[in-house]
Amino acid sequence: MSKIPKILVVDDDPDIVEILRYNLSLGGYDVKSAANGKEAIKKAKIFLPEIILLDVMMPEMDGIEACSLIKEIPSLVNTRIIFLSARSEDYTQLSAFDAGADDYISKPVKPKILLKKIESIFKRLNKKNEEITLIDLGEVKIDRNSYLVYLKNKEIALPRKEFELFYLLASKPGKVFTRDEIMGKVWGSEVVVGDRTIDVHIRKLREKIGVLYFKTVKGIGYKFNQ
Fold first, then answer.
1. Rg (CA), the chain
2. Number of H helices, E strands in the chain
3. How far apart are CA 188 and CA 43, in angstroms?
4. What is the pTM (predicted TM-score) of this model?
5. Beta bridge mates, 157
6. Which pLDDT band, with edges at 50, 70 and 90, does 2 fall under?
7. CATH architecture of the domain formed by 6-128
8. Which CATH number fits domain 134-224: 1.10.10.10, 1.20.200.10, 1.10.260.40, 3.20.20.70?
């Protein structure tokens, strides 16, 4: 990337913020911080980071709520959200992914491993920029560059994971994508998500785009009906 990648660190522990800021700055990133979810949303709108590192338990607004709200902001639709939390129970991680998280890392965080994960994310971003950017299916048009969907010429903005799931299914109308394929291509092999997470995203797409476009193939996965 030609510009310096921007990362927003959100945590109410100043020691953790300082450690992350120091290591990320050494890695060549432009880093800003926030101490709670409300402050994170305000700063993210101005800073427009490519990645947000987000704690779960914080005062004023927790990370789950903040993540959900951030994913609804059009200017931040491309922003990746990685949770860094001491909460490791399954229901917290599932809630994070349902809110739109791209990854979930348990504390304590090893800076070198975190830097490698972030480096991997930016590599995938650059690779996606080289892929086909426009799908035209008549009534439905999908523009990857702007992360916008046009349904009968009406513009629809989707949260990033919903968009990527829609883009994947619509890229090959009629093809049945298995749950494993969807998990690997939308969430990545390093992220563990359950069937419920995929089903939630499909339900939201049906509400916004239309029930008839998305066909459930029982016991296998989903396909897009043109």
1. 18
2. 8, 12
3. 28
4. 0.60
5. 148
6. very low
7. 3-Layer(aba) Sandwich (3.40)
8. 1.10.10.10
